[in-house]
Amino acid sequence: MTELYPTTPTALSRRTTLRAAGGGTLLLGFGLAGCRSAVSEGESAAPGAEASAEPRRGGTLTVAVNSDFTPSLLFAQSSQSLQQRLVYNTLVRYDDRLKPQPELATSWDYAEDGRSITLKLRTGVTYHDGRPFTADDVIFAVKNLQNPLRAAQLRATAAAITGFEKRGDHELVLKLAHPVNNLFDLFEFMIITDRNSVEDAVTGKKLNGTGPFELTKWSPGTGLSFTRNEKYWQPGRPYLDAVEFRVIAQADALLSSLRTGQTQLSYGVPGRNLAVLAADPELAISEYATGGGAHYLGVNTTVAPLNDKAVRQALAWGIDRERILKQVLGGYGLASATPWPKSSPAFSETGRTHYTYDPGKARELLKSAGHPKLDLPLLHINLPGDTAVAEAVQYDLKQIGVRVTLEPTDPATAQKNLISQSMPGLWTMSHGFAQVQPSTLAVSAYPFNEAKNTSRFRSAAYTKVVREAWTTPETGARANALRQQITDTLLDEAFIIDLVIRGSVQVAAKKLHGVTLNKFAYLNLDDAHLAG
Question: pTM of this prediction?
Answer without folding.
Answer: 0.84
